[in-house]
# Entry
Amino acid sequence: MSSVSDKVVIITGASSGIGEATARQLGQLGARLVLGARRLDRLQAICKDIETAGGQAICQATDVRRRADVKALADLALAHYGQMDVLINNAGLMPVSFLDELKVEEWEQMIDVNIKGVLYGIAAVLPQMRKQHSGHIINIASVAGHRVLPTYSVYSGTKFAVRAISEGLRQESRGEIRSTIISPGLTKTELLDHITDAQAADQMRKIFEVAINADAIARAIVYAIEQPDDVDVNEIVVRPTQQER
Ligand code: NDP
# Structure
């Protein structure tokens, strides 16, 4: 039995990419999963696959821009499984653009999903994790949370924020709650599909030619979860070997 077995793990943004790959790996290892995202049909298909393979997973339509949705997802974990061991705040968007394009609505979307969504996740699980005197919150940041490039200003800003929030959570954990930052580099997912700045999209497609599979990021997440309770993996950066910056 792995130490992941039977842990109740909530994942936001589980309908594709890193969230989906992580759900599938954790399902195989015996975790009890609660999956959220907006595309319920995709979530239901993933849950069905996990169950067919002998795992346990439930799902619920969740828009992380709505605090009530995120709370309802955490409440579902408690109602169905009686506990919540791990929250993976993974939902995120990356519609990068040059600031001159003034894509203010996209800036707001990134702030709402990438920062406020993470905070709503923390708010949804922290009181119960305090009651349990244990819990693990894993926030998906990015290599872009360590450095900025042209077109990345706002996206990087959100990911710097995620790293700061995670570190603050760690310092306030009172020895009970583990806080992990996962900072992926270029990873093959649906993340590029939402870029509307044509020049930025072209640039990204070229940069992403060396991208690695989402499974690699999922393995890093599993590593953090499977450590004993007294070991808190604070941050993992996973890049393609060919990614220079
Ligand atoms: P995907 O686009 O494949 O996945 C993003 C997930 O987020 C989807 O499941 C999507 O589901 C969900 N999501 C988006 N908006 C919302 C919302 N409002 N409410 C709930 N869920 C939402 O990309 P990735 O797998 O790459 O992204 C996962 C995380 O990894 C993000 O935080 C991203 O910033 C980060 N990351 C990715 C990198 C990469 O190279 N791919 C590199 C560094 C970090 P749905 O649309 O169904 O709601």
About this structure: The radius of gyration is 17 Å.
